[in-house]
Amino acid sequence: MDTHETPAAPVLEISTSRQMLSWLAEQKLAIALTTYQIGKLYFIGLKPDNTLSVFERSFNRCMGLCSTSNGLYMSSLYQVWRFENVLEPGQQQDGFDRLYVPQVGYTTGDLDIHDMAVDRDGRLVFVNTLFGCLATLSETHSFKPLWRPAFISKLAAEDRCHLNGLAMQDGQPAYVTAVSQSDVADGWREHRADGGIVIDVNRNEIVCTGLSMPHSPRWYNGRLWLLNSGTGDFGYVDLATGRFEPLCFCPGYMRGLSFHGDFALVGLSRPRHNKTFSGLALDANLKSRNAEARCGVQVIDLRTGDVVHWLRMEGVVEELYDVIALPNVRRPMALGFKTDEIRRVLSVEA
After folding, report:
1. Three-state secondary structure call for residue 288
2. 3-class secondary-structure state, position 342
3. Is 268 buried (19+), middle (13-18) or exposed (0-12) by CB count in 10 A?
4. Pairing between β-strand 98-107 and β-strand 332-334 as defined by DSSP bridges
5. Cβ neighbours around 49 below 10 Å, total
6. Beta-carbon-side half-sphere exposure of residue 330 (alpha carbons within 13 Å)
7. Do the beta carbons of residue 312 and residue 52 sit within 8 Å?
8. What are the residue ranges spanned by the domains of the chain?
9. pLDDT single digits (tens) 47-71
């Protein structure tokens, strides 16, 4: 008789700091997260009894997220989806106060779309990482290019500099991050430690250099914030000097940054042990603090740099890509394509 048991498949375990859930309640806030590692879109909110609500849907390699006035956009392996909330204000379904339906899908091909944002005209702008440019959706093609760095000599499906992050200012693309200034196929991998840059989109000029795998630039409260992921430092760029000013260290590989009031929400991942993530200063910075890399969300007080709340994910989820705050939302859910519900949710435009 074989006594060997099949190891149990890893499950998702979520823990939070003691005050995280009451903070979500006070702030009237929910959170959306993507993980392309296992292809999940997660919604974090509160049940009617104020305990944690975790709702998930499966989308292959989902990454970029951005909110709209009544929904959100999400990039996936070869499509971009626009989700629309079909519940009226005050209406609920099964205890959920938002029901996001994947209303429109654009087939883009595998562009490795990273950050996304909606401009002042309601147009989606996204970082087309494969081609190293900013782009928008096309009704007839994979994408329409809008801008590319001055050092990228041609549009080519070569991921030359690993353009990844987008910051909007006054409803227009303002700053982007890239891992390097390389102009050859996959050239960014040789410059992960200190080749990272921030580019001013309007002037097409580099305004900050010497970063390590920077991600998620965001303009907020008059400052350009970003994640210096290769070192573990969250901070901002002093545009007068071109220097990155760290605010605090986060124990993990950071991707995904959103703001709410005086707080930043930062996504953390456990780095993969491969060439992309090895040899970064983050390893030494964790070791010097006697810390292990975590996966989850850190809530940072921008006034002090203190991590005031956290949510930690263990088990099947080890990496996150994007994090967005959903203000005035308590308990969101979404429809996917793997269950029958999407056939039965019907709404009529008034």
Report:
1. helix
2. helix
3. buried
4. parallel
5. 7
6. 19
7. no
8. 12-338
9. 999 999 999 999 999 999 999 999 9
Q: Are 27 and 261 in contact (CB under 8 A)?
A: yes
Residue 309 pairs in a beta bridge with 299
- Asked if 75 and 59 touch (Cβ cutoff 8 Å), the reply is no
pLDDT digits (tens, 9 = 90+) for 245-302: 999 999 999 999 999 999 999 999 998 766 667 779 999 999 999 999 999 999 999 9
- Kindly report the CATH class assigned to 12-338: mainly beta
| Length of the chain counted residue by residue | 350
Three-class DSSP category at 273: coil
The DSSP H or E segment spanning 23 is helix 20-27
**Cα distance between residue 79 and residue 101, in whole Å:** 15
SS3 category, 3: coil
Residue 299's SS3 state is: strand
Q: Rounded distance, CA 330 to CA 29, Å?
A: 6
